[in-house]
Design goal:
Strand content: under 5%
Shape: rod-shaped
Largest sheet: none
Radius of gyration: 19 Å
Length: 81
């Protein structure tokens, strides 16, 4: 019987740091004439950053999870032929 145990919280923390480090800037600067324009621009920018983060997180988390799974199975001498 094969068994794996993956600490997904630690994996998520590691992946979150990796994704966060991949962004170019830590600051968001928005200039607008009116409060409504500022809020609308900020919302669009937030949505764009959030979408990028989620897409990258999903990709990196999947890669890290599968890598850990394969590592643990190889430690149990499982062959992937």
């Amino acid at each position: 019987m094969l068994k794996t145990q993956i600490d997904v919280v630690s994996l998520m923390k590691s992946v979150s740091a990796k994704v966060t480090d991949s962004f170019d800037s830590a600051s968001i600067v928005v200039e607008s004439e009116t409060p409504k324009e500022l809020i609308d621009s900020s919302e669009q920018l937030f949505n764009s950053i959030s979408d990028d983060f989620q897409k990258d997180f999903h990709q990196y988390f999947q890669e890290a999870y599968v890598a850990e799974l394969i590592k643990q199975l190889e430690e149990q001498s499982v062959s992937f032929n």
